[in-house]
Specification:
alpha+beta; Fructose-1,6-Bisphosphatase, Chain A, domain 1; D-Maltodextrin-Binding Protein, domain 2; 2 domains; 8 helices; 35% helix; Inositol_monoP_metal-BS; hydrolase; Inositol monophosphatase family protein
Amino acid sequence: MKINIKEMDEFLVELLSEVGKSLLVDSKKDKSVGTKSSRIDLVTNFDKSTEKWLVGKIKEKYTDATIFSEEGYGDVVKDMSGLVFFVDPIDGTMNFVKRRDDFASMIGVYLDGKPFLGAIIDVIKQEIYHGGPDYGIFRNKEKVISPKNQSLPEGLVDISWPMVVADRFNSQAVVQKSSGLRIYGSAGIIFEHLIFGREVLYMSYLAPWDLAAGRVLCESLGLKVSTIDDSPVNMLKSQVVIVGTEKVVSEVLKTVKK
């Protein structure tokens, strides 16, 4: 399938620019809030309306694409053939509701199973991180360079709080070897930190839409994305994922196996 990368990247940036402006206003409004899998898995009327709008725009532009989306307005995606979009309308809904800060919107694009383009908007900053392996990675229009390949003791780590509290996968040992633990509650915000070297590790249980855009950006900049057992990443299922520098992921994989 022949795709104009520049045109698609500009399309993603345009979409998230519109979404970012809307969500910045919406974050200050009263919200209709519900729960999904648990009391800490929230969904709002703005998650649904944002996703519905994004899916509609993508379908209008790329009629042959399939869309894997969080709130169910996309398609039933059974395989990764062709052009597949992953849509996360509001990443960090708890932050959106409780803090009105540290939340993002994300779109990841895969072509025949391979990372192609990704875009994340940090809504509060109104900054869009976008691009892909054959295009380069950008913060708005500024090109992003690869972060330094730091080791675990050199950097801060972000691990999901339930994982740390329960000490799943020896996560507390990972924290103790690092420079310290940070928890933000939004994969999109953490991917932003990773690509700029502000943190060296992210370990969490992620759904496909949580991971898709960030994986494209991180791998394009030389960071490593791995499952907890170092098996191939399956973009059609939720899984525990480790993202970080080459040195850190290698060290963490040894720690979690102990």
